[in-house]
Write a structure and sequence with these properties.
- 25% of the residues lie in helices and 9% in strands.
- It contains 1 helix and 2 strands; from the N terminus they run H-E-E.
- Strands 1-2 form a two-stranded antiparallel sheet.
- The relative contact order is 0.14.
- The mean pLDDT is 76.
Length: 64
């Protein structure tokens, strides 16, 4: 089974378990396969709980 077929099958199983009746609106489900990245290839953002109160966001880079 290829990667796409596996993701499609997983998405179908999730929707079948969660949806008990037809929806009145559209639904999007994002299913992806992830892999571990080296620490120097990632960043972290700290966002305010209330976006209206934030003047921006702080970026914490593992490299400084």
């Amino acid at each position: 089974m290829g990667h796409l077929a596996g993701v499609t099958k997983t998405g179908g199983r999730i929707l079948a378990k969660r949806l008990r009746k037809p929806l009145d609106d559209d639904l999007a489900l994002l299913v992806t396969r992830v892999r571990r990245l080296p620490e120097d290839a990632t960043d972290t953002w700290e966002l305010a709980a209330d976006p209206a109160s934030s003047q921006g966001c702080a970026v914490k880079s593992p490299t400084g």
